[in-house]
Amino acid sequence: MPADPGPPPLPALQQPRWPDTPALPAALATLARSLPLVLPSECALLKHRLAAVARGEAFLVQGGDCAESLDALHPDAVHRTVALLGRLGSVLGRAMELPVVTVGRLAGQYAKPRSSPTELRDGTELPVYRGDAVNGHAFTAADRAPDPDRLVRVYQASAATLNLVRALAGSAREEPREDLPEELFTSHEGLLLDYERALTRTDPAFAKPYAASGHLLWIGERTRQLDGAHLAYFASIANPIAVKIGPTTGTDELIRLVERLDPDREPGRLTLIARMGAGRVRSVLPDLVSKVRAEGMTVGWVSDPMHGNTVGAPCGRKTRRFDDILDELSGFFEVTRELGAHPGGVHLELTGEDVAECVGGGGRGVLPEDLPGGYRSVCDPRLNPEQSLHLADRLAALIAR
Ligand code: PEP
Ligand code: MN
Q1: Ligand 1, from 62, 244, 248: best to mutate by most atoms within 8 Å of Cβ?
Q2: What was the ipTM of the complex prediction?
């Protein structure tokens, strides 16, 4: 009798089509014997911090690039982004009168889900850019071919970034300063399951395996299917985790998602990141928050005001209007407060570099005509430091009202 093949693998959306060569198993074997980037005790500490967010006793500031880029990796850029997170934390922590938990979208944010598998330009069709963990951004067949060696390169870049982040946070502990957080955790979308599984580790002190690729991993809006491979992987790890939820999320679906990912109702285990769009947050979010509260589930509620507000600019690039971003944040605060829930934090795409990607902001702000010259993102548009700080000031004013 042939051996029982077992259940078929669960569908895993958004995975690259790797070449059918020994390169992928070789890269995964390298990762499997590599050092962990984070320790389970650190993940447990972040879970403890996020439990305070869920209870209404702390505020999460999570932010960084949409997609980190190996070419753009530079110590000053990391320093400036970390410092920006620190400044935002100071402003928002003061406004909320709460301690801040700072989490970077960095040291591992190298894989992107995409809406189409290919990109067509001037009659040429190539695989879409899926993040530096998979292929290159340049529109050439060579760059766009998925290359498994990149998995090892982004692991190494993540290790180097994390080393710098730890040094910056360490120096801020020695000598506290307004513009550097003293404690900073890392996060990324846990999209590439081969990569995450190869970096999953066990530790005798912890009952479950944990993802050693970053402190907090989240499931994206496009891969949160209840019967999908991402949910199964996330259910199997001990890290604090988050899920992005968009405007089509049903209330029953959300309850099943929470039950599946946080069956033990462990404080700090699960954060829900709402990314509804400014036009829908006030109509869609109330039912979701009410239902989760009625079930007695203690998740953290965080607003991502970026991903529901992406629009095309006249130059053809993706952009976001500052006013839409602020409007979604205001809606999120209105809804949560109205229901007696805690507006637990913000999730932003931002950079310490002076880019022109989102439009609007304080003063002259960024104009659509600035985009062609000032756009650096390899994926979604980020807030620059001026826009980020202006957003924090405007939000602080709203909070105080
Ligand atoms: C992202 O965070 O870059 C992203 C793709 O978000 P979402 O899954 O919410 O669309
Ligand atoms: Mn993005």
Answers
A1: 244
A2: 0.99
